[in-house]
Amino acid sequence: MTDAATEARALLRGLTDAEPFGGWSAPGRVNLIGEHTDYNDGFVLPFAIDHRTHVALGIRQDAVIRVTSTFAADAVEVPIAELPSLFPSEGRVPEWAAYPLGVAWALVAASVVDPSELSGLDLAIASDVPIGAGLSSSAAIEGATATALNDAWQLGLDRVALARIGRTAENDAVGAPTGIMDQMAAMLGRADAGIFLDCRSLEATVVDLGFAAAGLEVLVIDTGVKHSHATGGYRDRRESCELGARLMGVMALRDVSVEDLPRAAEIMDDVTFRRVRHIVTENQRVLDTVHTLRTEGAGAIGELLLASHASMRDDFEISVPELDTAVDSAMTAGAVGARMTGGGFGGAAIALVDHDRVATTMDAVAAAFEASRFSAPTMFTVTPSEGARRDA
Ligand code: GLA
Q1: Residue ranges of domains in the chain
Q2: Residues 203-244: pLDDT tens digits?
């Protein structure tokens, strides 16, 4: 059992004096390519990572749901009868608790369950997904909680339905206007594989990544620059995309192709055009990456990763100097490809690196950060892993 799983069980035992009814977990994710395309009905290619959030769950005799976690000292209690009106919470629950309680609320709000029929529960949460690193620690909490509640309350929902519940919690309880990529990755992840997702149809295809066979590792470079998608830049980018789609007369930017870009340039202002160009070219890069992985293997996707980074830096303008330094220094050290991953404005970059060069790449990146007087980044390799599951 991993440390976070042990921690979650210990936390629950401390709270209830009883053995947990069960333990569930869900992973964080790295997005290999396809950034900000999810809420434009486009394509993404994330994979679940070997860092997970664990939920230990106990059944209560009353109709109360209580959550506790290693993120904060105090447990938060809500009568199940009050769940339907819990969000928007106007600060009634602390931010961390909005994730698990948001999932419970979303299950009730989706009318999947009648609150009066539900047993009370204790949930204890511990995680080894770094928080604020752009590795989707939030979707890991949502995925682990949704899977646990689905089993404990015997709701019978499938994985895509649980991913949707997670996104509702994120959008309407936490208040971050994100797409569905992270929740789908947390629910559907597979060992050694990426999830090629059409965010319009939610059709998911498992794509063999073959990193190990190609002698490659994915190095995560967490810049330590914190970001939040509930405020600021993320929302602003989303609005630009919606404006771009309206101007092009389409439902979503998914419906604009690379060939349509000259017309887009004529009818919109420069900033909106560059936001649109990022989405349109990024969708194409996801399709090209899937094709390249299938035909030539992981060693051949480097140019696509770099083009994606350049597009986020120059057109979508969501990179920060630390992320650019991470990408540039990893490439100078001989990486096959590198890009920032996740929503941007901070968080992590990934570099695809030959197994034998991981240590020298880490040294080179650390040296470049020091030379730029940035705080030292945290670096580790990740392995494509399984999605949400019951562990105990
Ligand atoms: C965050 C969001 C996702 C997605 C990415 C950018 O991770 O949660 O829905 O929009 O940013 O690709």
Answers
A1: 3-27+49-188, 208-382
A2: 999 999 999 999 999 999 999 998 777 668 999 999 999 999
Residue to mutate (ligand 1; options 30, 171, 182, 323; most atoms within 8 A of CB):
182
SS3 193: strand
List pLDDT tens digits, range 6-63: 999 999 999 998 889 999 999 999 999 999 999 999 999 999 999 999 999 999 999 9
**Does the model's pTM come out above 0.70?**
yes
Range 3-27+49-188: architecture per CATH: 2-Layer Sandwich (3.30)
Any catalytic annotation for residue 315?
no
For 100-127, the DSSP string reads: HHHHHHHHHHTTSS-GGGPPPEEEEEEE
- The phi and psi torsions of 92 (rounded to 5 degrees) equal -70, -25
Distance between first and last Cα of the chain? 9
Establish whether residue 240 lines the binding site of ligand 1, counting it when its CB lies within 6 angstroms of any ligand atom: no
Topology of the domain covering 208-382 = Alpha-Beta Plaits (3.30.70)
